[in-house]
Amino acid sequence: DTVAEQTVAGRKGAAVSIDPGVMDTDMQRTIRKASVRRFPMKQVFVDFKKQHALIDPGAAALRIVEQHILP
After folding, report:
1. Quick check: helix, strand or coil at residue 27?
2. How far apart are CA 14 and CA 25, in angstroms?
3. Residue 61's closest CA among 51, 69, 49, 53?
4. Predicted local confidence at residue 17, as pLDDT
5. What is the pTM of this model?
């Protein structure tokens, strides 16, 4: 995560970049169902799922709220 602060016209603002990792989304499911011909990197995404390397989007959202919004 990175946070950058900048003062513009006397007002302070912040930009935050958050990388929650590879999430298990509908797009992931679509890729895993696609043919290798249509999506040559399919196996990478199949392996993410097999290795339990995909993050639940709800868990990612909760972690973002807890770390960046609530404190």
Report:
1. helix
2. 28
3. 69
4. 82
5. 0.65
Spatial CA neighbour of 39 closest among 31, 29, 49 = 31
Q: Which of 4, 25, 24, 6 minimizes the C-alpha distance to 15?
A: 4
Q: What is the pLDDT along the chain (71 residues), one digit of tens a residue?
A: 455 556 666 667 777 788 889 999 999 999 999 999 999 999 999 999 999 999 999 999 999 899 888 87
- Tokens representing residue 4 in the block: 């950058």
Q: Judge whether 37 and 43 are in contact, CB under 8 Å.
A: no
CA–CA distance, 1 with 18 (Å, rounded to integer): 5
Query: Which residues face 57 on adjacent strands?
Result: none
